[in-house]
Amino acid sequence: MPELPEVETYRRFLDELVVGQTITAFEVLDAHVLGTPEDTLRPALVGRTISGTSRLGKNCFLLLDNGQVLVLHFGMSGDVGAYRDAADAPRFTRVALHLDSGLRAAFVDPRKFGRIRLAESVAAYQQAKKLGPDALELTVSELTDRLTKRKTLLKPLLLDQRLTAGLGNWIVDEVLFQAKIHPERIANTVTAAEVKRLHAAVQLVLTTAIAAEANYRNFPASFLIHAREWDESATPGTDSHEFCPRHPRTRIEKKYVGGRATYFCPKCQPEPAE
Ligand SMILES: [Zn+2]
Is 224 exposed, middle or buried, given 0-12, 13-18 or 19+ CB atoms closer than 10 A? Predict the structure, then answer.
């Protein structure tokens, strides 16, 4: 599922491709991914110039020269692509923006859970969707404010997009591991020093993932993610990825927290006292 690091990688790709370009045609191959009707989108897009891109959590925005924005949400399997001739369209291209450069920007989505919408502005979309500040922009004091009043489990709270936008399931596990905090801590018991560690871990995990263009196998061996075994492990031919990078004899544990598969080190992330 495209998380914040993938969406930031897509945004950078689109920024190179579309900024300064005028949309010459709006091609819909499968209207399933449209969150705004096609007959509203086409006149809103064709003839407009794209003045920039931005991102909030897992949402990518193409900024139009009249102030409106095209919102791209990538669902379970969304991706972006570029091509020149119709025959070269990536497989599962659902929508394409034809640009005056002669290139086409493709919205690719095999499973069709992604959505393309028109919004009046990024701020209007953020308000309508009740999204908190982007996880990379979140400050220590905002994080402190959002945790101190809450008597709920830490992990589900960090996943709540109203608290901050862009923290998904594996990211929260990695953040809690790097910050050495158990996922079932009650939010208002987290100390000021721990909030600082959490904030630093959010920055570390997201900037590392973006620098690796979200290629998980290139993440440092000090990351918990290798225990998830999505990919070949970082240590082929051994089972060392099943153990804590800091405690080579302690096996990473898995349990369900708030209904979500959760990985943690029982030594680094001590269970909360009763
Ligand atoms: Zn450990």
Answer: buried
